[in-house]
């Protein structure tokens, strides 16, 4: 991979400037107001894939945001790698907390600050540039297919349909995904698992209009008080989730697996300092690493109701809302959990209110065996560029689509991510290290090389 | 009061058009954006008092919104009535739920729809017009003083200072207030008591920034979940407030008082139908009327935190907020309850979060003896215009300033209100019946007449 690495070395600045172009497009998939920008981002990816040398590059329409497809099939006897990623990003709210505008990429302390810099535009672009390097240097070891979607942040519903309708075209020996994090820049790691997700929105309707809290207070159910009581009751004093059947299918890790996990480098003090919290908080009987990866959770992602303006308004609100999501672990079914939540939440509503539950989106958890050839190839590739073997970890986040790939295409995904948990993805001031961006581009060609060797 | 009543009769349309002018001024005291409008409303009142014949009318500056003062002192041997009211209004949010614009008064089904139509511009204006009628007809039976403030909806803090600094000028034999409701248009009533208020804002700070709920969910305290748990814990399964010492000073009504209260006309079915609720909800062991008047309450008036935009965002929020108010009953001290709440709320915060409590405003409960001459005068005045005696009731709302009047000036207030609980004050589509507006103007002169007679 000499020539490829040289090509990368001599084009670093151009690669970065191109990424900046992509980061300037506010492709927020959750908000209809950005529909046009999401499409612009897709068209931009199409153009760059063509320039990099991909064939049959096209923008595949869906009922929602388009999927970008492209391929380079050099020899049918060689293994095929399907690269998956997404060009859509999370909303930038709260925008006022950004030090520099979310869609105006800025370099500070060797880091690229912008929404999507790490999740996932920066990591998607590593693949396009690594492909360009291998292709231009005549060192491409495998066939490549690209599938870059625009709805990962809102559940990948349309990609699911696209996958089901294109099983032939998407056939490959492995799916390569860079949409996750390593432990640290000097501690490379690869996620051997991901959590699933069930995301719902709830509405508690009290009286048919806002009321005066003096005239009606104490006599009429206050939907905000009730919503707080209902949410609070979903967890017990050990921070275990109280929804009947919730833990039924949870895969309990063996003592030896937990012991192995305990070996993962982790500095609790630094963790608390970084977040400015006096203590961690979670399910009794589990470590912080376990709570954030192998255990299911229930978090309120947003809540609103009543008067939230300046000053004081003595109102008894008519309605209260909350967005609630649960992270799931292997064996838990997203649909089943969504049903269990809905059934339970409706059942605990007092007579004085009406409750509505609306599922947003979900996805299944995923496990990648560490002895899989693709996992080994990724591990060896990182060992070359980082100078030390990658540690297998279990990720707390969700990439619902990888479980679907396995189900529909029968292909495993290797999660070779180059971000860091401290990159503030989904938060203000999201960033991605220049070190990480370039290290990713350098590592990917070695993955292709190792995968070709190990696969045969 | 012949001439006065004739004057009223022949000027009804003008009175209404003038009130419309006042209702068009968006004098929202809670929102700094309306500061100029609040002042315009004050200046408008000044002008109308002068035209009605009041002397020494002036706009008294305060650090906040101004107080309007005016007087007509005809004979130092006659009793003096101090009329109190407020020209500021509640915010109009949620504006989208108004059928017609909140600051464009509209008549529908014999009712004036506008923010402040009942609370309290409409009722304040009844007094100005009743005074004009008595004055122009040479039938004014007592000396009159007017004190109309612009901060009732935000706690009357500056009026409190004004009152303390003007005890001489404000001397009177009774304070007459129309800022409350009757049972029904055919069931006149007078409030013999009001609830106090303690209003606070709480902030629960978790991590120093929004986090990815997959990466950190389950391991870091979620401030929204925590806030819900803390709020839920403030009430037990009997809907009793759990703050230590909260009920210590609560005045328990005697069995006979409760029996008398039970005689008040009340239709539970109509009440639930009007609000479209399947059941009422409140403290065990008390009736709806009791829960809404003689028992203290705790209501969340507003809550917000995390992502509340369109779609789904898998964020673990950094902070959560709530506005919480407690209605208090006689003998409970607003300051003491505010302290008890703050102390308790801070004490129940888990280690993983930081909690801040900020008091907004408060006020003491108030009781008016039904055998007080002013209460008798009001009762007899209503009997003349409604054709039946007024029923004494206990109001659930708060007019913090009346307790202060008694403390600072040693003067009792009579709460002769002409609104209805169904007028949607503090809600979208606030309204005030034309019947009520005119009936108030007609009744007030008789109060002056009766008060003069009974006082001597």
TrEMBL record, chains A, B:
Domain Peptidase M20 dimerisation: 194-351
Entries under InterPro entries matching the protein: Cyt/Met_Dipeptidase, Peptidase_M20, Peptidase_M20_dimer
Coiled coil: none
Example GO BP: proteolysis
Keywords assigned by UniProt, alphabetized: Hydrolase, Metal-binding, Protease
Molecular function, one GO term: peptidase activity
Source taxon at top rank: Bacteria
Pfam families in the record: M20_dimer, Peptidase_M20
Keyword hit for Signal: no
Gene3D superfamilies the record matches: 3.30.70.360, Zn peptidases
Alphabetical list of PANTHER family matching this protein: BETA-ALA-HIS DIPEPTIDASE, SUCCINYL-DIAMINOPIMELATE DESUCCINYLASE
NCBIfam families, per the entry: PRK07907.1 (NF005914), PRK08201.1 (NF006053), PRK09104.1 (NF006579)
The name this protein goes by in its record: Dipeptidase
């Amino acid at each position: 991979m000499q020539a490829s690495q040289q090509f990368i070395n001599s084009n670093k600045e151009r690669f970065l400037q191109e990424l900046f172009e992509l980061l300037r497009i506010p492709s927020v998939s959750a908000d209809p107001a950005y529909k046009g920008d999401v499409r612009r981002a897709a068209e931009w990816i199409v153009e760059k894939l063509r320039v990099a040398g991909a064939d049959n590059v096209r923008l595949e329409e869906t009922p929602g945001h388009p999927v970008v497809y492209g391929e380079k099939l050099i020899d049918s006897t060689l293994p095929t790698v399907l690269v998956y990623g997404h060009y859509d990003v999370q909303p930038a709210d709260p925008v006022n907390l950004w030090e520099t505008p979310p869609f105006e990429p800025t370099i500070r302390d060797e880091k690229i600050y912008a929404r999507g810099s790490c999740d996932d535009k920066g990591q998607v672009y590593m693949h396009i540039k690594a492909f360009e390097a291998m292709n231009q240097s005549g060192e491409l070891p495998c066939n490549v297919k690209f599938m870059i979607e625009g709805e990962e942040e809102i559940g990948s519903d349309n990609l699911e349909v696209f996958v089901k309708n294109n099983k032939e075209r998407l056939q490959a020996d492995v799916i390569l995904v860079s949409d996750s994090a390593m432990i640290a820049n000097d501690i490379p790691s690869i996620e051997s698992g991901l959590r699933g997700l069930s995301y719902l929105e709830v509405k508690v309707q009290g009286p048919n209009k806002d009321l005066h809290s003096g005239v009606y207070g104490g006599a009429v159910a206050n939907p905000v008080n009730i919503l707080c009581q209902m949410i609070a009751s979903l967890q017990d004093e050990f921070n275990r989730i109280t929804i009947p059947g919730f833990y039924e299918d949870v895969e309990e890790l063996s003592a030896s697996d937990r012991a192995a996990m305990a070996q993962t480098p982790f500095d609790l003090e630094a963790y608390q300092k970084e977040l400015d919290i006096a203590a961690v908080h979670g399910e009794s009987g589990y470590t912080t690493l376990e709570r954030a990866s192998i255990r299911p959770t229930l978090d309120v992602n947003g809540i609103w109701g009543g008067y939230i303006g300046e000053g004081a308004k003595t109102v008894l609100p008519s309605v209260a809302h909350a967005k609630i999501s649960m992270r799931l672990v292997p064996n838990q079914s997203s649909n089943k959990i969504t049903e269990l939540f809905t059934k339970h939440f409706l059942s605990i509503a007092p007579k004085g209110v009406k409750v509505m539950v609306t599922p947003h989106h979900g996805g299944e958890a995923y496990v990648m065996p560490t002895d899989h050839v693709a996992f080994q190839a990724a591990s060896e590739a990182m060992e070359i560029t980082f100078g030390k073997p990658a540690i297998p970890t279990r990720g707390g986040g969700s990439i619902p689509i990888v479980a679907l790939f396995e189900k529909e295409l029968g292909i495993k995904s290797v999660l070779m991510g180059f971000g860091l948990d401290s990159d503030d993805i989904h938060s203000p001031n999201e960033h991605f290290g220049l070190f990480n961006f370039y290290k990713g581009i350098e590592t990917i060609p070695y993955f292709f090389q190792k995968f070709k060797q190990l696969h045969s």
